[in-house]
Write a structure and sequence with these properties.
Layout (H helix, E strand, L loop, with lengths): L4 E2 L14 E4 L5 E6 L5 E8 L13 H8 L11 H8 L3 E6 L4 E8 L4 H13 L4 H20 L6 H9 L13 H6 L2 H11 L5 E7 L3 H12 L22 E7 L6 E7 L6 H14 L5 H9 L3 E10 L4 E9 L5 H18 L3 H17 L4 H15 L4 H10 L3 H12 L5 E7 L3
Parallel strand pairs: 3-7, 8-12
Antiparallel strand pairs: 1-2, 2-3, 4-6, 4-7, 5-6, 9-11, 9-12, 10-11
Helix pairs in contact: 1-4, 3-8, 9-12, 9-15, 10-11, 11-15
């Protein structure tokens, strides 16, 4: 077992400091402990470093599929027993998948800490990838796609945006994937995916809450220490293409209540210098009713009922997506042009000192609030370990935001947004 390292904090106040200990088991499982005595509860996070970007181009949706399948039978656990055990103990459970991660979450009373650890160990290498579980979850996932994508207003937006923005490279498909790929996948395909990515060396376990660290270390060594890794993990080559021209499409959407335009630009990857400036730029343009886009398009010109933007922060790449939902008698071209005009003002004139200070204050408050619960802290510690190999970023990342200057924000606006190489999707309601 590797020596323990301790996280320290010299930047934030004592009240927001997150102390932790980290160790690595002999099988490669990284374990992070955070003691929090404020309540008699404990959260566990098991973060697997596998997401949609790790799938094969013709077999998408597998990472998300396992978010569901991992609640089927595993080891000595029977089908439907995992939620039953957690609910009977008074705890909660959840999971999520993204482009870069699949994360499993438990929250239990402090005296039940062994239960989620035992469950996670059972299914790390003991999941029963069998016909009953696969077919059950295949139906669940296909129905989820119909409900959350196919039958939603503007439901195809992200699929079309990623396909054209990332040009068949990494991140060019959605997390939920292609329904045809899930329908046609064989059990052997799922088994191969499980064996490749669900291994101790591809996982980060975080325990946060009210517990005795020596006791929990003993449980983890008992449950996880003997788990072996399987095959060597070989990642798909990262393919990042530049967008060389504009792609524009009009989509007739019989579920859309209003006309809407979505505009996508390439962005910066997580943790890069541009990433921090772009996130502050995003807040200046789109955070709340005092943001530039809202004041211009909604309040002043009254051409849009909604106007905003958001960065798509990814491990290897990034995107910036604007959107505006027009009033019925307004033209989408006017909405689109107004968005470009607000961006152009920043490119040409920059931002004020007060705008920069305001957005930094908002960011600091968001970072402080993101560490209030044991679940939130556990998720952040796992995230920083996964993407930065440094869980102490939970204490240090504010420094990166505070180091951003007005010139940085003007520079990234020009670098990423002063181009016609973009994706523009106009959604038009079907005429009744």
């Amino acid at each position: 077992m590797a020596a323990l390292t301790t996280g320290t904090n010299n930047l934030l106040s004592q009240e927001t400091k997150v102390n932790f200990k980290k160790e690595t088991l002999e099988n490669g499982l990284r374990v992070i402990y955070n003691i929090d005595r404020t309540a008699p509860v404990v959260s566990t996070i098991l973060h697997y470093e596998v997401g949609a970007k790790d799938e094969d181009f013709g077999k998408t949706g597998f990472a998300h599929f396992f978010e569901h399948l991992m609640f089927e039978s595993a080891g000595s656990l029977e089908r439907a027993e995992i939620p039953k055990l957690i609910n009977e103990s008074g705890g909660t459970l959840n999971a999520h998948t993204s482009f870069d991660e699949t994360v499993y979450k438990f929250k239990v009373s402090a005296n039940q800490i062994k239960l989620p650890l035992w469950i996670e160990a059972q299914r790390m290498r003991g999941l029963n990838v069998d016909e009953i579980g696969v077919e059950t979850q295949r139906g669940v996932v296909l129905e989820e796609k119909k409900t959350s994508v196919d039958n939603q207003p503007y439901g195809t937006m992200l699929e079309k945006m990623l396909k054209n923005l990332f040009q068949k490279g990494t991140y060019s498909w959605t997390v939920i994937g292609d329904a045809n790929h899930i329908e046609k996948a064989k059990i052997e395909d799922f088994k191969n995916f499980y064996d490749k990515y669900y291994q101790p060396k591809n996982a980060i376990l975080v325990v946060s809450g009210n517990f005795i660290i020596d006791d929990v270390k003993g449980y983890i060594n008992e449950y996880f220490g003997g788990i072996k890794n399987t095959i060597e993990i070989t990642r798909n080559p990262v393919k990042i293409d530049t967008l060389k021209k504009e792609y524009r499409e009009n989509i007739i959407d019989d579920k859309a209540p209003h006309k809407a335009v979505f505009i996508g630009f390439k962005g910066a990857n997580l943790g890069s210098a541009d990433y921090y400036a772009l996130n502050l730029l995003s807040n200046i343009l789109a955070s709340g009713e005092s943001s530039r886009l809202y004041k211009r398009l909604v309040n002043k010109d009254e051409i849009a009922m909604q106007a905003s933007m958001f960065p798509l922060n990814l491990q290897e790449d990034g995107a910036i997506i604007f959107y505006g939902v027009a009033y019925p008698k307004q033209d989408l071209d006017d909405v689109e042009d107004a968005i470009y005009e607000e961006v152009k003002k920043i490119i040409e004139d920059g931002i004020s000192d007060s705008e920069l200070q305001k957005v930094k204050n908002i960011t600091e408050m968001d970072l402080v609030n993101s560490k209030k619960s044991v679940m939130q802290k556990a998720m952040l510690l796992a995230r920083y370990e996964a993407y930065y190999k440094d869980p102490n970023m939970i204490n240090d990342e504010l420094t990166n935001f505070n180091s951003v200057t007005k010139e940085d924000i003007q520079r990234v606006a020009k670098k990423y947004l002063a181009t016609k190489n973009r994706v523009v999707l106009n959604y038009l309601p079907k005429e009744k």
